[in-house]
Amino acid sequence: MKNRTLLFTLSLLCMVISAVGQTCTVKGKIVTDHDGEAASFAIVSIRNQELRTLSDVNGYFELRNVPIGKHTIEVECLGYVKLQHQFMAMKDVSLSLRLQSNSFTLPEFEIMARKSRKGKVVVDEAALEYIQPTSLADVMLLLPGSVYKENNLTQFAQISSRQVGTDANTSLGVGIVTDGAPVTNDGIRSQLVGITEGSEHYDGEVRSRTGINQGADMRMISTDHIQSVEFTRGISSSRYGNLSSGMISISSKHGVTPLRVRLKSDLKNTLLYAGKGWRLGEKAGSLHAGIDFLHSIDDIREEMDKFSRLTGQLYYNNKVKLGSYTLDLDGRLSQTLTANKMKKDELTYEYNESYKADYSRTALMMKGLLTLGKPWLSQLELIMSADYTRDRITRHRMVLSGSGPLNMPLAHEAGEHEGIYLPRKYYSDFYIDNQPLNFYAQLNAVSRIQLLKNTMLNLQYGAEYSNVKNHGAGAVIEDESRPPFPYDNSYMRPRPNWAIPALGNGAIYAQADFIYDDNNSNVLQLSVGGRASMLLNLPRDYYLHGYLLKDPRLNLSYIMGKAFKNTFRVGYGEESKTPTLDYLYPEKLYKDFYMLNAYTIDPRYRHLITYTNIYDVANRDLHVNKNRKMEAGWDIDYRGFSLSLTAFYEQSDAGFEYFTTYHPLTYDLYSQLKPGANIEGRTPQKSDYIQEKYSIFTTSQQVKNSQKVTKRGIEYRLILPKLKPLLTTIEINGAYYQTDYASSLPLYYYPDVKIGGKEYPYVCIYDNGARNQYRRFNSNVWLNTHIPKFKLFLTNFFQVVWLNTSQYKDNHDYIPTAYIDMQGNRRPVDERIRSLIEADDGTFRYFRRTILPVKYACNKMPISLLWNIKATKEFAKGTKLSFFVNGLLDVSPKYLSGSKITKREWHDPYFGLELYFNFNL
Q1: Is this prediction's pTM over 0.85?
Q2: Whole-number pLDDT of residue 562
């Protein structure tokens, strides 16, 4: 048996070794239709083969280890139409390729997103130029299932992915990668009562304009520096990690281009961009530079509703020959800052308040790709990036108490303390200073081995390391005796952010892509891989210290047919998002309770004694948020007809969420004067009052893995053959989404009642499967009319939302499964307790929760229709003029919600112009 196994292994090895030689090299030169000049640094790839390279400054390229047979080579270059060319490779091949400039005179001009391999969606330069986005959020309207949203750049907007509505964990889990380097704000930390999520009273101005623990701020990503965007909403490649909701991969503009100027103006936004690429010399490579300025006003009446952004970017690339090897060198330097810093509105003017935001981000990326062309090591790539952000919010805020006297926080230790009353009205000055420094390095290797005649193995593997350290001062209150949010007598003593440990993350990954292509009509691709990662530099008492995260991923696709082509896709994967610095290292919570509250008319005789309790709310048992994904798809292509269907299911049951924790507390209370005690004309003391033991439940907010999000649905995309008499193409896309938001932990409920003048002695725990379910079915119809003779493009966009519902659901169990008493003991609700509840006992009758039937009612919105139009005319030398109207028609009828309230939702119409100049200097 052992001899047979050895013989089989040797035979297989010999077959593999003999098959390695059955590949060839494809070389060529790429020129443009602009006087036949070389297409410098164009992206060259072979379809279905995971092969990719760049042309050099003179337009020459080389691809090694290309399997023998028929292939399609694809070339993309900034400013030119994507080229697809079929060729036969029986031996080494030399090709001459010519690119056409992007122009409306071409019979076929694509402005929509296109399908990519493994179900991904790519939005290239032509589509980005046509849709005129102001931020990355605008681009997502091209994706199936997306719905039109009004563009409001004055507030942070969460990123949604395959869902109805949005949630912080999905937004946090979307990985954004620019030129191979991640964009993250996991190092942002803002710990202050009133700012930290979960605070009972919070500053709406700060919370609505920042995205703490909600992922990257897409307002800060300018689309004018982008050449293409790839969206992965299904199973991501094993190369990418620390994400849970898919990935957005951005490729920056690079190479040699003419001077391009873009001017855009509408009722909300004004934008100016200029960019150009230079050929630096025969061997010096190219440099592309761009700068843009954006000013946005959501409501002209509100000065707070303004946003200004200035971005600049330099991108250098070169291709160097090192003997028989080639080295691709890339470098990017970018700068983003906000210009409009001081903000006030009518309310802040009246209260003499102010809000100042100061944001600046500098990023540097360097990348080297060495092409060896060996079967055992085809390519070796090193990516290194660093970015430094300075994000400071300064606030001058008026505090006004309308609910009685508040105490000044003085205690730094638990126990009994003398207190001081705060003024009824005062001003509090504070600022929040974040200065995260991110470092990232990734080493990637690719091996290409031909296993059999038509079967290739493309093996990707590598390692990465990331580190983030916040060097900011954190939350700083200028005068601690004037807290900005004293309303519930809860305080924090914020540590500076620079005192918090750095957060490191190390990972390794491997992915095997098996590609079978019979050069006829069948292509089978199987991608099997996984990654292992670990958070570094965590204290030993944290659960994630030394914990190895494992994310397996699998994608399988099968293409069959030529004229009538069918593609079948299935995939499964697990993606993990680690907690942020803000989640891992919260501040302790100080809570003051009045022991003696003698607030007399005469300020000289007032006396306040407080009892301070300190709660350590750090959750050292915090896990990662793991999202398990499954999807299956079917694509049909036949003579211009294209249909794509994708069914998916995702479940994440460990999302990060601030969870209310109840703590029993007993302390001495002095509220009732002793018989005969007289406190007139003097300061009251504890000895003047009757001492009593007072027991209450107090609360704190702690981050737990409690949020559960379940997503399921079907996405579709239908492209009809071009209606030649009307010169119009029609695309219909949309989706049916069902999203459930729930908690993976039981519900804690404290009845707000008193018994015999005492606080209620129990906290009830319900495990009733409560969830909020949202459903939506929409269709987006794009009618694109292209008239090459007049260089004119007309687009009519119709959005129909056929179904849009929301409903609260549970298992209708209104009796708790357990409860907590004043001693902190958790006890089950047994038959004895149940009988007391049924008997309407004076104490236990409050265990029964009463939920009115109206809460279970389904909120169903009527069918709505939205119509947007756009017209673009091209003039000489690529100059374009565009006019658009959003919300030209908005049919959103009134409806009666489940709670019997009349509602109506609509979009504000607005219009705008855009000018695009192309100077061949």
Answers
A1: yes
A2: 84
